[in-house]
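Colleagues,

For the teaching module next term, I've prepared a clean inverse folding example: a structure given as tokens, and then the sequence designed for it. I'd like students to try predicting residues themselves before seeing the answer, so please don't circulate the second half yet.
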């Protein structure tokens, strides 16, 4: 989710290279022009001649070693590689229509399982933003903002803190398919989000047949707080899972401090967790360290698992970073290093 992309205008049947747009929370992209791209042109043409189309992506390749599985060279050692397209068009003054498609690059030959991360259409304006399709849940958005390691390959959340950040899809990404979401405009730092997917068809899977969630966010000055709830069913006859997560972030100047708590009740099982971490910027580089603990309680028996992670991110240019990190999950250790390039 962290990229910078190229702006391309579709006008009178031609693609015209525009300025590079910096997307909030994204990295920086290469200053290069896409002269022909039929799929991009087709998407732009669906809207109208004045639709603005943005194509973006990132590729992460590295080498990793785990105490349980040996050494591997491949993609997604730190961040998930992806490819995406965005388009927007002004419908009327102050109102825009938009579309977003994004898919994960899952192996070393560039294989994608379609646009499995995001596939939405929507409207945005002074009233807020309304989107429909496959999109990130409020619970997922709050969960990753609690992580000093950016919810990536060295995250301590692998110890269990992320167990219920599944959404209602079978890919466990934390997104919700067949969903509709409304987000209010920013109200002096406050924002509310509500998402529902009340009638997810079986369609070959009974996983998470319904899903709903609410997010309450505050971001102003050095302080960020995100709170979210979720409720879903694994199967039509199964118990309803109810959960919440609270994420905190405070910028003290020399460092960013992170913390979070969550709880999910799944029938007879109650799972709770906490996390804390720190990210220290060093110019364009950074060092991050985090810890998380997860506790499962069922029938009076508790099972606790702890995990920690650390990473060093070195900026090589506006689009490229080198990374090195360590992760330890219940005594299984991983080290990895590689390159991630935004485009």
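(Answer key — instructors only)
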């Amino acid at each position: 989710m962290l990229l910078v992309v190229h702006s391309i205008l579709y006008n009178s049947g031609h693609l015209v290279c525009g300025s590079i747009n910096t997307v909030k929370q994204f990295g920086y992209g290469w200053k290069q022009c896409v002269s022909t791209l039929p799929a991009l042109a087709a998407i732009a043409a669906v809207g109208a001649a004045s639709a603005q189309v943005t194509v973006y992506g990132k590729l992460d390749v590295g080498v990793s070693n785990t105490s349980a599985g040996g050494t591997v060279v491949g993609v997604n050692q730190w961040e998930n590689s992806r490819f995406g397209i965005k388009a927007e068009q002004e419908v009327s003054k102050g109102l825009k229509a938009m579309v977003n498609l994004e898919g994960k690059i899952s192996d070393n030959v560039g294989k994608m399982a379609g646009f499995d991360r995001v596939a939405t259409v929507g409207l945005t304006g002074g009233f807020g933003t309304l989107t429909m399709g496959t999109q990130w849940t409020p619970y997922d958005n709050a969960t990753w903002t609690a992580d000093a390691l950016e919810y990536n390959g060295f995250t301590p959340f692998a110890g269990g803190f992320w167990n219920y950040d599944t959404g209602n899809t079978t890919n466990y990404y934390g997104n919700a398919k067949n969903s509709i979401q409304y987000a209010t405009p920013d109200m002096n730092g406050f924002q509310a989000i509500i998402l529902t997917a009340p009638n997810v068809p079986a369609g070959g899977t009974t996983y998470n047949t319904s899903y709903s969630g609410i997010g309450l966010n505050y971001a102003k000055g050095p302080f960020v707080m995100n709170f979210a709830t979720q409720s879903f069913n694994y199967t039509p006859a199964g118990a309803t899972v109810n959960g919440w997560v609270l994420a905190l972030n405070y910028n003290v100047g020399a460092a960013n401090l992170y913390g979070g708590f969550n709880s999910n009740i799944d029938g007879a099982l109650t799972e709770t967790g906490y996390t804390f971490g720190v990210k220290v910027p060093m110019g364009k580089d950074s060092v991050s360290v985090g810890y998380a603990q997860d506790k499962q309680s069922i029938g009076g028996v508790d099972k606790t698992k702890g995990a920690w992670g650390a990473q060093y991110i070195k900026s090589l240019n506006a689009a490229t970073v080198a990374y090195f990190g360590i992760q330890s999950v219940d005594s299984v250790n991983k080290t990895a290093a590689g390159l991630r390039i935004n485009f």
